[in-house]
From TrEMBL:
GO terms for cellular component: cytosol. Its EC number is 3.1.2.4. Residues 29-347 form the Enoyl-CoA hydratase/isomerase domain. Keywords: Hydrolase. GO terms for biological process: L-valine catabolic process. Pfam families: ECH_2. InterPro entries: ClpP/crotonase-like_dom_sf (IPR029045), ECH_dom (IPR045004), HIBYL-CoA-H (IPR032259). It comes from Prauserella cavernicola. PANTHER family: 3-HYDROXYISOBUTYRYL-COA HYDROLASE, MITOCHONDRIAL, 3-HYDROXYISOBUTYRYL-COA HYDROLASE-RELATED. It comes from the Bacteria. This is 3-hydroxyisobutyryl-CoA hydrolase. It catalyses: 3-hydroxy-2-methylpropanoyl-CoA + H2O = 3-hydroxy-2-methylpropanoate + CoA + H(+). GO terms for molecular function: 3-hydroxyisobutyryl-CoA hydrolase activity.
Length: 360
């Protein structure tokens, strides 16, 4: 694939007719994900365009801050383009591995970007959408925000730095989010450290105007409000107690005996891929001990590369996205059948194919 060059996006005004609009306006580097019919799902070209723009803007004196938003009314980003990944996997291709490598490099670049990076996390923000927003320096949520990492529902594992973020939430809230694949609210995202500020959605146009006139901190302070209470924070007692267990079967056992909300979480988890659940728990525990985002992204690339070659991943996408029968035939079909050897295979170093972010 030919990558977009940085200077293709350096002019004033929008680049039209593309899946991502990149332009400089009033001192702001503006990035708008522009696939509203699919809730701005990310493809490889979009990742390349964003990365090229950030590489240029890092040293461009015209740009004092970056603002990311999404076209349409439904959300910032529904995640990666899963249909394309399914087609690639089914055909025995390699393009998805290149996509993930570039996507994870972009996640790291966002986290270390030297200027303010403002992400408007309005509406749905899932999977890859979390990757292009929650590593920013000023992450804005609204009353419409629904944030989540849905990967275990499709036989996959939280990626794009998701295991880094979720392993660093208060207590075991991140483990709960990862294993249930549930969506959380804007106030929940703030409590979990995935977002910073709550701004009512009808104030976002005013925020954009203020960002063009003021420094980021001052602009945000003028419109941000105290968020409503976090529902997840109110559930922390049973979440922390149940998810502190060292295995998914033990987590489920504790959940089933801890009240109605916990039993409901257990039911959600039981519908997910047994292999993906087991790998996800190990990935979260390992991520908590890794020193930085780059090290976690390297681990996630090993996991994603292994998952891409499993029937589990293709079956999960088929059931949830392609046929939509919501009845995946997981194999192994139960947690008891998942072996240590199967789980360990997801963490094997890739040799020359290592992502290698932590080495830079």
């Amino acid at each position: 694939m030919v990558r977009p060059s940085a200077d293709a996006y350096s002019g004033e005004g929008p680049v039209t007719g593309t899946d991502v609009l990149v332009r400089v306006e009033a001192g702001l580097g503006r990035i708008t994900l522009n696939r509203p019919r699919v809730i701005n799902a990310l493809n490889h070209e979009m990742v390349g365009a964003i990365a090229a723009a950030l590489a240029e803007w890092a040293s461009d004196d015209r740009v004092r801050a970056v603002v990311l938003d999404g076209a349409g009314e439904r959300g910032l980003c529904a995640g990666g383009d899963i249909r394309s990944i399914h087609t690639d996997a089914s055909a025995g291709g390699e393009e998805s591995l290149a996509f993930w490598a570039d996507e994870y490099r972009l996640n790291a670049a966002i986290a270390r970007f030297p200027k303010p990076y403002v992400a408007l996390m309005d509406g749905l923000v899932m999977g890859g959408g979390v990757g292009v927003s929650a590593h920013g320096s000023a992450r804005i949520v609204t009353e419409r925000s629904r944030v989540g990492m849905p990967e275990t529902g499709i036989g996959f594992v939280p990626d794009v730095g998701g295991t880094y973020l979720l392993s660093r939430t208060p207590g075991e809230l991140g483990t709960h989010i990862a294993l249930t694949a549930g969506q959380i609210s804007g106030p929940d995202a703030i409590h979990c450290g995935l977002a910073d500020h709550f701004v009512p959605s009808d104030e976002l146009p005013r925020l954009l105007n203020l960002l063009a006139e003021r420094e980021v901190d001052a602009a945000v302070a003028a419109v941000a409000q105290d968020p409503p209470p976090s529902g997840l924070a109110a559930e922390a007692e049973w979440i922390d107690r149940c998810y502190a267990a060292d295995s998914v079967p033990e987590i489920l056992r504790r959940l089933r005996g801890s009240g109605e909300a916990a039993a409901s979480a257990a039911k959600e988890i039981e519908s997910k891929s047994p292999t993906a659940l087991t790998v996800s728990l190990r990935a979260l525990r390992a991520a908590a001990a890794l020193p930085d985002l780059e090290s976690v992204l390297d681990q996630e690339y090993r996991i994603s590369s292994a998952a891409f070659r499993t029937p589990e991943f293709a079956e999960g996408i088929r059931a949830q996205i392609i046929d939509k029968d919501r009845d995946p035939a997981w194999s192994p079909a139960s947690l008891a059948e998942v072996t240590d050897e199967q789980v360990a295979a997801y963490f094997v170093p890739l040799g020359e194919r290592e992502l290698g972010l932590a080495a830079h």
